[in-house]
Amino acid sequence: MKKFTNFPYTNILVLGLAKSGTAAAETLLANDKKVIVNDMKATENDETVVNLKKMGADVIVGSHPISILNGIELLVKNPGIPYENPIVVEAVNIGIPVITEIELAYHLTDGPIIGVTGSNGKTTTTTLVTEMLKESKQQVKVAGNIGIVATEAVHSMSEKETLVLELSSFQLQGIEKFKPTTAILLNIFEAHLDYHKTLDNYKRAKFNIFKNQTEADYLVYNADDKSIADEVRKAKSNLVPFTVKSKVKTGAWADSEYIYFADDKVISRQNIVLVGEHNLENILAAIAAAKLNGATNDGIRTVLTTFTGVKHRLQFVGNINGRLFYNDSKATNMLATQKALRAFTQPTILLAGGLDRGNEFTDLLPFLGNVKAMVVFGETSEKLKQLSLEAGIKTILQSEDVAKATEHAYSISEENDVILLSPACASWDQYRTFEERGDMFVQAVHKLK
C-alpha cells in the first residue's frame, strides 16, 4: 500500500463507513495514522468494523458523540453525510479541516489525474475518456463516483498510469489541495439543493474542480454554459472549450457533419452510435480531454463507433418486435429526462415517476411532443398524470412499479415506438438506488422477449 510523502495530520476521524470511509480508514491506518472511525448505522459485529479494529482503529458505532473530536486534527467525511451533521458542524466551528476521501487519493497519486464533474453526463464522459485512452494504448484506471473508490484505485497504480475520476459535488466540497491535471466541467443545473441548500453553494462545490489548478494544468469546459464560461475566467489553468454552437481554435466542436479538435477532423457524426444531443456535448468533452492526454484519432473512432451508452444512462436494452427499449434510470431530475426525450424523433412511450421532492413537472411540457403515452409509478404518479393531461397525451396508465410499467408500455405499443424509462425522479420511494430501478426495467424487457 502506498505511503504519504507530505501529509501533516496524525490524529484523524473518519466519519461514516460505506466504501469510501472504509477505504479511507484502511489507507490512513496503513500510513501509521491514529484513526477513529464513527458510524451511526454500523454495529460492533459488522465485518468491516471488526477488521478495522484488528488494524488498529478505534471504532465507535450507533451514535455521534461530540467528545469524539477531542484531539482530532482532521475529519475525513463520507461524501453523503451533510454538513449539518453535529460532528461536522462542531469540527468546522473549532477549526478542524473537513475533507473527503478524494483528497487522500490525491496525496497518493504519482501520475496524471483527469477529473470529470457536472450536473449531468459525468459517467458517460468518464467512461468515454477512459475507453478512448485505453484504445490509444494508454495505461489508465477509472475510479471515484464510478467503479472503485479513488484511494483503493491508487494503491496499485504506477506514475505512468492516468487516473480518471468521476467527481460529485459532495466529493469536491471537501478538498484542500486536490487538483486534476485535466479537469472537465460539463454543465451546471439546479441539483442536490437538499444537500447544498442553495444553487450558489452547489456551484461553488462544482467549481472547486479547478480552484487549485496551475498554468501546467488543463480545464476542459462547456463554452455554451454561461455560468461556467463566466466562472472559468478565474482559472489559472489552460482553458480548453467545447461547444456545439461554433468553431473554436483550441478545443472540441462540431458542425452538421463532423466533430473536430481544433482544426483536426476527428470523426463523421453519422458514424457515432451514441444517441442524443446531450451526448454530443459529452463526446466533445471526452475528445478534448482524451486528446490532451495522448489519445489517437483511431482510438477515439473505435470507441465512438461501438459505444452505445453507459448502463442506466440512455442505455439501449433491446428491440422486441420493432419496439426499441431504452433504460435511462439515471434520469433522477427533469433536466436529464428532457435530454432523453430530445434524443428521439419516433413516437415514445415514457415511463416516469418516483420520489416526490415537492416539485412540479411543468418544465417537461415542451419536451413531450413525441410522447404518445405515459406510464407512471411511484409517489409522483398523480402529478405526472396531471402533466400528461396538460400535454394532451391521451393514453395514461398507472403501474405499481417499473416491472409492471414495462409490461403495460409494451401492451399499448406499436412497431417503431420507443419505450423509454426516464423517471425524472429519484428512486428512493420504491428502490434503494437508481441502478436497482434500472435493473428491474432491463429484467422486465428480457422477460418480454
Automatic annotation (TrEMBL):
Binding-site positions, ATP: G118, S119, N120, G121, K122, T123, T124
Positions of the Mur ligase central domain: 116-290
InterPro entries in the cross-refs: Mur-like_cat_sf, Mur_ligase_C, Mur_ligase_C_dom_sf, Mur_ligase_cen, MurD
Catalytic activity annotation: UDP-N-acetyl-alpha-D-muramoyl-L-alanine + D-glutamate + ATP = UDP-N-acetyl-alpha-D-muramoyl-L-alanyl-D-glutamate + ADP + phosphate + H(+)
Top-rank taxon: Bacteria
Lineage summary: Bacteria, Bacillati, Bacillota, Bacilli, Bacillales
MF-aspect GO terms: UDP-N-acetylmuramoylalanine-D-glutamate ligase activity
Signal peptide boundaries: 1-25
Name of the protein in its database record: UDP-N-acetylmuramoylalanine--D-glutamate ligase
Domain (Mur ligase C-terminal): residue spans on this chain: 312-425
Family annotation (PANTHER family): UDP-N-ACETYLMURAMOYLALANINE--D-GLUTAMATE LIGASE
Organism: Oceanobacillus longus
Underlying gene: murD
